[in-house]
Amino acid sequence: MLCAASKTTLSPTEVALRLAELGFERPPLSHLPDEVKEGDLILSSSEIGSFRSRRMNNDHWLAVGQTISVQHIAIAAVQTRLSPLAVRARLARLGFDVPPEHRLKFESARDDLTLLSADLEGVGSWLHAGHPALQRPGTTLPVGHVLAAAARIGVSPVGVVERLETLGLFCEPADLPARVDGLDGRLLRRVEDLALWQNEHSGEFAWLSCSEPADRRHLLICAGRTGLSPADVARRIDALGIPTADPQGLPRQVDREDLVLLSRDLDAQAPFTSLDDTFTCGKVLAVAIATRRTPAQVIGRCEQLGVHVSN
User: Fold this and answer.
1) pLDDT on residue 54
2) What is the rounded CA–CA span in Å between residue 287 and residue 161?
3) What is the rounded distance in angstroms from the CA atom of residue 105 to the CA atom of residue 249?
4) What does the domain layout of the chain look like in residue ranges?
């Protein structure tokens, strides 16, 4: 209703009545404002302003009467430059079920967009009640999200935890370091192609957790990306309170050609092959061509990296 009204000379009520004449079910007229205000489309969108497509459909809009999370309001407050309480009041006027006022007595901050984005890029997908990874009761954010956020916005991990709690989200229990530098922040993200990976793991987060050790493949990929040795990567992640697989037996250095070998498309980029997968003869030959190594050299390097090659 609001979007149609903003694109025509009709009021939201007139849009609703006309759609009802065309056979569509309309919302209660009491939920419709006299006019569309600037920011209403952001407030009432499921993507909260981060429109990923010019083609709008029903998935873009919140249902009338839908319960709104504190995180939705915090994100919308930054996007519209309104206070959280002002966003709450406007959403209530539009017929949404909003949180109590006492949960919104905080000032919005630009960094909230970083903290509440799943990949810490400051844009959707947003960490709010509609995010698949937050829909399980009692779900907490992984400590990797907290630590990487601290490195990105330049505050202490404890400060990140406190701000997230203000915003209605909680971190898994962990002994937090006093600070996290930028290099450490680069070690905490899963080494997957997240766009593909989250199609099958939508209920999981993009960051490492205390509950699951970083595996040997993670150590290798991070080593290749940062120039650290796998053992140094493991030491740094362990020092942040996140367990890792034993790096013993892994090579001291991992270079770009190793990333080519481990990447599914031989481009040194995610998605990367699982170390549990078996390299076929065809894959060995393809890697040899891509890296200008002999097949024997590729097989030898696979053994050093812990990749099994078929007979």
Assistant:
1) 45
2) 44
3) 53
4) 210-309
